TrEMBL record:
Domain FAD-binding FR-type residue range list: 18-118
Species of provenance: marine sediment metagenome
GO molecular function: 2 iron, 2 sulfur cluster binding; flavin adenine dinucleotide binding; oxidoreductase activity
CDD domains given in the database record: sulfite_reductase_like
GO BP annotations, alphabetical order: pyrimidine nucleotide biosynthetic process
Name of the molecule in the record: FAD-binding FR-type domain-containing protein
Residue ranges of the TM segments: none
Cross-referenced Pfam families: FAD_binding_6, NAD_binding_1
Amino acid sequence: MTTERTAERTGGLIPLDYTPSKMRIERIVPETSDVKTFRLGFCDERENERFSFRAGQFGLFSVFGAGEATFCIASSPTRKGYIECSVKRAGKVTDELDRRNEGDVIGFRGPYGNWFPIDRMEGKNLLFVGGGIGLAPLRSLIWNCLDLRDKFGKVCILYGARSVDDLVYKEELKAWQGTSGVQTVYTVDPGGETPEWDGRVGFVPTVLEEANPSPEDTIVVTCGPPIMIKFV
């Protein structure tokens, strides 16, 4: 049912509709032992065509009969026709989402919330600092900026996780590293490495000091555990 109230969505006024839209799971990517990334497309093609959002916004995702939970939209608004969200198992709804398969239908409401002021970042150097699943909200902005690469200066992406298994978006980290003008540094906490791991070992604030990105004309965007953000 649609109310007469309105809300701002990406600069325009829209009716507030509390009925979830139906979205089909198009692809599932296992990121870690307890995190999956879901690619979703609206079952109604007209919604796919008119839907828009901005990096940093979130949605309410529902499994029918289990409930509803809030997750950031982890894909870039520059990439049309689908959205992605990364879900960590942590309760009833996330457990049910984890059991879904490609082709299954779930509910979605959104987008909601504030967004990153990407227009004010143009011409600046960018430093992204993420920890654990906190890379998910940054991923939307990172891809948004990389898809508009010529509008920004140098880009540094620093990411850390508790262990090798907890690193999300492993293939994308490699892809970002191979992008011109982008420095990508990722690390695991001491004790979280495996015998096969040949990457960095150390806490994010320490690795940030070692990477020593230039603070000049730089905007920093960070998301992760509070203790990490405190020292960043």
